[in-house]
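pls design
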């Protein structure tokens, strides 16, 4: 029996790349999926229609509308990439999946795209090293002072359990590389540094050298596809309170990245010197990059002691490592120059990053 899947944020960098991967599969169980893609605008809908999938325009904040999409299209699996920090969207989607399960008698699944930064000290994580096999759900509930991403993680698990929906949380790290979606093909983080460097004619780095976890978009998409395959095969894999997945291929050493960017941009005549300078202040950095000041330190300097276990146990095999990543900085510049037509924000109410 075929199953039906909905991808939210399908015009975004991650969602669009996941959609492209699933739509292009010619073998395995994924090719049997009936794919729906949720977008916000008619222009986005027209762009994605060439993929031969069911494209739906829907406001995810409209509970009745998203319920209609899920029930009418008989959606069994939702891959949610539209926002990591808006709890109302989560509630509407999971409630609809719960109703779908009641009507069909079939299991329903919610795959949530979260953010790895919340498991770093700068992101408010007080417990030090964390493995995705640890009791993360319980630890997140212990932390006082709500972070919107963490609160959303908790809501996913609790709401899904209450509605009889199987949930998974993918903690997405720094993502880089050229996306394969039809609409937005560059990420939010590194392109922001490239744009700002070109505008200022200088590459800035922070006074602290962060080493956050990272993954190439192709490796990240491969994990989403692998997880979906495991669901279709009905394998007994970590889910619910145990269903956290750190999709980490390697680290992103920010000072080394900025130096490589300085060299690449200087070679193209886009900055004045092939070396970096320290940001005058975090306030200046936040204003220049377009990121909220409250998150600037976590974005720019965090490292975190995250250890990925679950993804590798599923059989995930990333192809990109730190050396290949650093060697690709000129490609990152080229992608921004060619493809940076949709100015993103990591903090839109409905983010498609």
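designed seq:
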């Amino acid at each position: 029996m075929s199953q039906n899947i909905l991808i939210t944020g399908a015009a975004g960098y991650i969602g669009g790349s996941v959609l492209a991967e699933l739509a292009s599969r010619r073998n395995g169980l994924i090719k049997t999926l009936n794919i729906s893609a949720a977008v916000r605008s008619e222009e986005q809908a027209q762009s994605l229609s060439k993929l031969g999938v069911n494209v739906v325009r829907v406001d995810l904040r409209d509970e009745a509308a998203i319920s209609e999409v899920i029930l009418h299209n008989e959606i069994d699996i939702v891959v949610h990439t539209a926002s990591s920090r808006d709890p109302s969207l989560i509630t509407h989607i999971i409630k609809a999946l719960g109703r779908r399960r009641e009507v069909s008698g079939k299991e329903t699944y919610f795959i949530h795209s979260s953010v790895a930064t919340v498991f770093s000290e700068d992101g408010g994580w007080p417990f030090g090293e964390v493995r995705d096999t640890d009791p993360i759900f319980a630890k997140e509930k212990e932390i006082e002072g709500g972070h919107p991403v963490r609160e959303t993680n908790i809501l996913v698990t609790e709401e899904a359990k209450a509605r009889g929906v199987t949930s998974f949380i993918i903690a997405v790290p720094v993502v880089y590389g050229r996306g394969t979606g039809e609409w937005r093909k560059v990420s939010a983080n590194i392109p922001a540094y490239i744009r700002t460097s070109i505008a200022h004619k200088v590459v800035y780095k922070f006074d602290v050298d962060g080493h956050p976890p990272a993954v190439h978009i192709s490796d990240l998409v491969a994990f989403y596809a692998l997880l979906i395959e495991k669901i279709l095969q009905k394998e007994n894999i970590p889910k619910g309170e145990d269903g956290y997945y750190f999709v980490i291929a390697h680290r992103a050493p920010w000072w080394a990245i900025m130096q490589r960017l300085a060299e690449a941009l200087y070679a193209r005549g886009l900055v004045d010197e092939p070396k970096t300078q320290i940001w005058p202040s975090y306030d200046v950095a936040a204003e220049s990059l377009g990121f909220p000041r409250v998150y600037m330190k976590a974005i720019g300097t965090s490292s975190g002691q995250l250890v990925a276990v679950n993804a590798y146990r599923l059989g995930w095999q990333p192809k990109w490592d730190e050396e290949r990543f650093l060697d690709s900085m000129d490609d990152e510049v080229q992608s921004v120059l060619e493809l940076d037509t949709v100015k993103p924000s990591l903090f839109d109410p409905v983010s498609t990053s």
